[in-house]
Amino acid sequence: MTEQPRLAPRSPAGGRVGESVQRPDAVLKVKGDFPYSSDLQVEGMLWGATVRSPHPYARIISIDTAEALTSPGVKAVLTHEDVPGRKVYGLEIPDQPVLAIDTVRYWGEAVALVAAEHPEQARRAAAKVHVDYLVLVPLTDPEGALTPDAPALHEGGNITRHVRIRHGVQGPRAHMVVTGEYEIGMQDQAPLGPESGLAIPDGVGGVDLYIATQWLHIDRDQLAEILALPPDRVRLTMAGIGGAFGAREDLSMQAHACMLALRTGRPVKIAYSRPESFVGHVHRHPGRLHYEHGATREGKLVYVKARILLDGGAYASSSTAVIANACCFAVGPYECPNATIDGWVVYTNNPPCGAMRGFGSVQNCYAHEAQMDKLSAALGMDPIELRIRNAMKTGSSMITGQVVEGPVPVADLLRRVRDVPLPRANASNPIDLTEMPGGVSNTTHGEAVKRGVGYAVGFKNIGYSEGFNDYSTARVRLSVVEGRPRVEVHTAGAEVGQGLVTVQAQIAGTELGVSEVVVLDADTTVGSAGSSSASRQTYITGGAVKAACEAVRERVLGLAQSELGGHDGQGLRFEENAILSADGTVVVSLATLLGDEVIEETREFRPRPTARLDPETGQSNAHLQYAFAAHRAVVDVDTELGLVKVVELATAQDVGKAINPQAVEGQLEGGAAQGLGLAVMEEIQVKDGVIRNASFTDYLLPTILDMPPLRMQILELGDPHSPYGLKGVGEPPTISSGPAIIAAIRAATGRPLSRVPVRPHDIVDTSLQS
Amino acid sequence: MKIACTVNGRSRTVDGVWEGESLLSVLRDRMQLPGSKNACEQGECGSCSVYMDGVLVCACLVLGGQANGRTIVTIEGLTTGDTLHAVQQAFVEAGAVQCGFCTPGLVVATHDLLARVPEPSVMQIREALAGNICRCTGYAKIIDAVQLAAQRIAVDERIAR
Hints:
The structure holds two protein chains of two kinds. Chain A is α+β, with helices and mostly antiparallel strands. Helix content of chain A is 24%, strand content 26%. Chain A has a seven-stranded mixed sheet with strand order 3-7-1-14-11-12-13, with helices on both faces. A six-stranded mixed sheet of chain A has the order 9-18-17-16-10-33. In chain A, a hairpin with a 2-residue loop joins strand 30 and strand 31. The longest helix of chain A is centred in the last third of the chain and has 28 residues. In chain B, strands 2-1-5-3-4 form a five-stranded mixed sheet, with helices on both faces.
């Protein structure tokens, strides 16, 4: 038995569905006692370091590891030749080398690995791996990647996927037509915990990996192929995670740590620095979007034509699903009888892009909401009124032909954010400088500061789409411990900070009526839970926990009937650690009934299936559930310096059922902050394929000074198909918050602002300067 | 290099520290105090906030050698036995913790703020915590937590008087 690292002790949680239950891990976290993946250590552990490409595109002529191998403390140096099994991986298309083989396709691509006794020895040895490159001209313009004379970066060319949606009549005429070009910069998820993990060889050829990830089983399956091991020889356990937001869907250091551990026979830890993290995970796709909206005199949409181009960078990651979302949700949550949408995601030599919160629905929201504002201005209509006139309702058809069921409160959400009282103007005397754009930097006393108000609404799919086999597995065990009934819930669902651990305990507590629920460590000894992405875990893993609890309950009732006799089981309920009859009297306490009996059930939960988009028309029932949110933004803009102060955000969102209201609020607040970031400050700046700002000094993240108060209205309208009527919550806040801010800056400045993030020189009218 | 300092009330000595090593590395890797977090290691995110001689610093920006002879208090030093400090308790209750990677730094920075400004305005809270990045919460519940902690500390002090 090899030594295991210290993981977080599992504290019991309680509470019921609908209560604001405290996180069972919160006490450890506020004490600094919660072990994150970057904190793990065991005796005799080595440190891994990664040799990375300094070029965005080059052929590898040779790799010389001799000097690194003889460096102090070094135990192994590995290249692609040392990959035991499949040398490439990928979520959808296995196109990314574990270690570069003969070509590097992006700046920072992993080329070789070093393991040494001390992290600094590993880093220094990595610098002594000599790679001879033939530098090539990188393909960095996604438009260029579409042209026939562009170099093909992968077999089969540079188009990762082309999505076509043809809905209704093609080429109709309309009274009013508005067009626009929009550009979205590359956003980083910037989870605070950099990629890290610890691989421990089991001494008989297998490996245990302690890792911060979003989906243990897809990591496990990819690792088994890369390591040429049967899946049961690669065991993964979730370690403490410092956020994710899509950044941990792909493999980063997982295979590297396992390869080094298996080669050296010693535990190996890899922990990225922040600069390495910027090249260690995929980013949000930058996009260029061309839109044409046609509408009647009364403001009803006649058609939308859109051309969407996303830069997928060097490898596919989840690009094919991201472009599908960008196209399916291209017109926003509006009724649009006719649509012509073409979306491409292409390979370039830019950093690879993939999943980030909002997943394709963020880029298009900037475009469709700007178009709705343009249309309302052209028609002389109020922007909210125009949106309400076109708002989707229950039974409306998507541009994919799918009929949207259940509550579709688009018009209601818009009215609600419109009707929130506006914040007061910053007009105190003397003026409060801290509330001004630029704050205490004392850049303005209010002259040339203009206020603007803007609106946006957005939506996206919850759960996997397009026929993906979406399911989760839960094992629930009921026993009596020290005289009290206790439930253990075991799933592989990744707690990424969102509160899945709390939700699972609340569901088990509700279904089995017990006060003590322990959610065990997520690992691969239980079936897959799918990914903590697509806002799906409360729905899907929550559904699995509920199903397993129902199975346990049925067995308990069976036991009660045979033990107690006579009772038909009708109207019995589980509450207060006991079985109660319909009139609320205790029939038997669970502890008495169970005695030494242990009741354990495992269930899979599968939501309704979805279907692939038709490749010619994009028509299909491709999505499981739709979630909607609207935002209003109020901004103050210093029109001379181009500084923006977001004064307030207001939002309304239908969450179906708030399983944990406090956690729901946290999702709305945190999601809005990430939307604000993309709107006004966050961008990975890539020049000639090279990231110029791979640090938190140069990549700007919203601070507590940047994030304004958020006025929230949380609706619980109940989805007829989901457990407890819940809807996924995490992503909608990130979709429409940014576009509302941009609309507000447009309103304040009159500038077109077709590109995000908005920079000072986009706001300041430089044509007025001599 | 040998460093001797007082950490969380205990005398600590570590040997073999590299000249270029940060106080953060010394705490995390040599003193088994991993509560201070390493999110940016450039002094931008505040996740490694600690006290050095009573002054709030980013441990990543302090050389290990500079800590010699000094008194350091880390997040691990704010808890008395099993009892959470009022700031820690408020962060738990207000829902100010999601992934929690920023939490140790924010708790230490809030502890420092409330020692200087017992009843901070929202803008004073924002200014004081502007050096601490949180990627999960959007900060609203952090402001709630600071206000809750301030109220409780004020009540406790009134009772003590």
